[in-house]
Design goal:
The protein is an alpha/beta fold. Helices cover about 35% and strands about 10% of the residues. The protein has a 3-stranded parallel sheet.
């Protein structure tokens, strides 16, 4: 009888551990309030037009991005490639910082197609990216949770 009671208690403990909710935690600490991001969080969900700067004439990048925003684009999509995660090499945080300086109200949507993106997320956030998307893959993203 004692063995049966012990098994019942052990089973109840296992069930309570499985159903207990872990405390909520954030993978990334929030920085000072970003009014562009606050607007995104509170507005109704809708389809957004976000043309990539890869199709721009880089000798006139600021002007080209201004033109697509004037034409009705909602966001500016920045494809970042490092030559390791994908074969192409594109741009880095310096271009994002230059766009932020030129277009302070634009939403910059950065897509990091890079190996170990956890090494660069802060660089792009500091440069002025509003949205940062990464690919989580075992071979190239080892410490994204940090």
């Amino acid at each position: 009888a004692f063995v049966g009671a012990g098994a019942a208690v052990a089973g109840a403990l296992r069930r309570s551990r499985r159903t207990a909710k872990a405390p909520a935690s954030r993978a990334v600490a929030l920085r000072a309030t970003n009014l562009r991001v606050e607007k995104l969080r509170t507005e109704a969900k809708s389809i957004k037009i976000s043309p990539s700067i890869l199709s721009a004439d880089f000798s006139r990048l600021g002007e080209e991005v201004e033109n697509v925003l004037k034409a009705g684009a909602d966001w500016v999509h920045v494809d970042v490639m490092d030559g390791k995660f994908v074969p192409n090499i594109t741009i880095g945080p310096l271009v994002v910082a230059a766009l932020r300086k030129k277009l302070p109200d634009a939403v910059l949507d950065c897509h990091l197609m890079i190996a170990e993106p956890e090494q660069r997320v802060d660089d792009f956030a500091k440069a002025g990216a509003d949205i940062i998307a990464v690919h989580v893959e075992a071979a190239s993203t080892t410490h994204l949770h940090r």
